[in-house]
């Protein structure tokens, strides 16, 4: 049963309610290892579903374009103050609808169409909005891209510096969507200062680890920081932009009125709840457990012959090249899903296959740690993954179904927010 219960939805729209109930059970019954997903708390779920969704609030606290903001202003201010406290920043904007609009706001704040932006290439682990060709950021701006070393899978900062000196970008993005190693923000900052660029740290994947002290912070190095509020931070599907005081006005004007109208107040409230949770001692324990689980899982996968990009992980994320296993990432991911292990197929650096049928899989341990799984469970997870890949190659659906049953047996001992078997 979905928690909080949804009796009114069930009575009003039983078809949709049934799908919601099934999704709640699906999230309970599987090992959810998509690196960008997590479980939010019941408090975050409740905040996301309040009457705050009824209110329009264009503008900022004290400077709105609609009346009736007596309670909305303090809610948004609370979220802002908590973001500033958790991350130690001068300024925070909690209104962006999601991560991509937050990154677009950086372009609007600091660039004009045709200006040069530098970011990690998408196949190397970067994000679409860091200037990739199919994104508006690659179509409207002159995009130059750095990558990783073929030998190490790590960023070669000598190459980054040479590229920056040659191209003179106005903005440099550090961060991405498939980076399993610690991001060296001080080195990026040094290069950005040398070429007079704004350094934008995209910490969408690692925000919760930074808040929990399990990854170095970009604060003091980056001029502007963007992040989603879900993923490792365990908040709702939203985003934030944080910056130095110098850039506060430019950031705020880029978000509103530059890119969007009224903020989603129910999401703002849920962000505030998540940030309060992130300020608690238990959150530091969770962040440390996420990394411990990832390291243990990486070791167990390597022992079973998986080829991990960069040889392992420093954070929540693992990127594996399945070429040596004799299977593509897409059929492997689909088989793993049938085996109760949810992750995604993904390109790997220097991939010879197409993006929609790549060589790799990407997985993470944030949701497993939220659920309560620890290092002791990771060898079993690796064994199931290995067995599922083997079963996929053999087209052995019975074996996949058997693994799925074993997964359900394990996770039944680890309840999750949002679902109750009662």
From TrEMBL:
Keyword annotations of the record: Amino-acid biosynthesis, Cytoplasm, One-carbon metabolism, Pyridoxal phosphate, Transferase
Site (Plays an important role in substrate specificity): 230
Gene3D superfamilies: Aspartate Aminotransferase, domain 1 (3.90.1150.10), Type I PLP-dependent aspartate aminotransferase-like (Major domain) (3.40.640.10)
Subcellular location: Cytoplasm
Boundaries of every Serine hydroxymethyltransferase-like domain copy: 10-385
Catalytic EC class: transferase
Task of the protein: Catalyzes the reversible interconversion of serine and glycine with tetrahydrofolate (THF) serving as the one-carbon carrier. This reaction serves as the major source of one-carbon groups required for the biosynthesis of purines, thymidylate, methionine, and other important biomolecules. Also exhibits THF-independent aldolase activity toward beta-hydroxyamino acids, producing glycine and aldehydes, via a retro-aldol mechanism.
Family that this chain belongs to: Belongs to the SHMT family.
Subunit structure of this chain's protein: Homodimer.
Name of the protein in its database record: Serine hydroxymethyltransferase
Species of origin: Phytohabitans aurantiacus
Lineage of the species this protein comes from: Bacteria, Bacillati, Actinomycetota, Actinomycetes, Micromonosporales
Gene: glyA_2
